[in-house]
């Protein structure tokens, strides 16, 4: 897979909309437009307290007309938070939280057993 170049531009108006939509429940760190080639995506970066003392990075990435493809999700995640391992949750439909039909959510992974397995099976690519 070729590396995609990602550039970001702040989107202060989107940050205010995100804060209002979540009633201030998210610690919104950044709201940006991400450009991957000629494509534009919205990226909302927050620190979510999963439980007391356990804050994790959370990226919401949306495309205008469709869900971002895998290689774009990976490129944006690695550019936004280098070195952080993320997972995309696939909960039962009754737990879905999307307010936007073309958004996917990535959460920082802190599962030591799964992280250890990933490291053991690594193919030796350059760290991101």
Please describe what this structure looks like.
The protein is of the alpha+beta class and 128 residues long. It has one domain (6-120): Streptococcus thermophilus LMG 18311 protein like (3-Layer(aba) Sandwich). Helix content is 23%, strand content 37%. The protein contains 3 helices and 6 strands, in the order E-H-E-E-E-H-E-E-H. The protein has a 6-stranded antiparallel sheet. It is globular.
Per CATH, which architecture? 3-Layer(aba) Sandwich
Query: Treating each run of at least 4 consecutive H or I residues as one helix, how many helices?
Result: 3
CATH topology: Streptococcus thermophilus LMG 18311 protein like
Query: How far apart are the termini?
Result: 14 Å
Order of helices and strands: EHEEEHEEH
**Helix/strand/pairing class, anyone?**
alpha+beta
CATH superfamily: Streptococcus thermophilus LMG 18311 protein like
What is the helical fraction, as a range of percent?
Answer: 10-25%
How do the strands line up in the largest sheet?
1-2-3-4-6-5
| Bulk shape | globular
What is the average per-residue confidence, as pLDDT, rounded to a whole number?
Answer: 85
Low-confidence parts: none
Count of all domains? 1
Query: How many strands appear in the DSSP assignment?
Result: 6
Strand content: 35-45%
- Major beta-sheet overview: 6 strands, antiparallel
The protein's oligomeric status is single chain
* Rg of Cα set: 15 Å
Given this structure, which CATH class is correct?
Alpha Beta
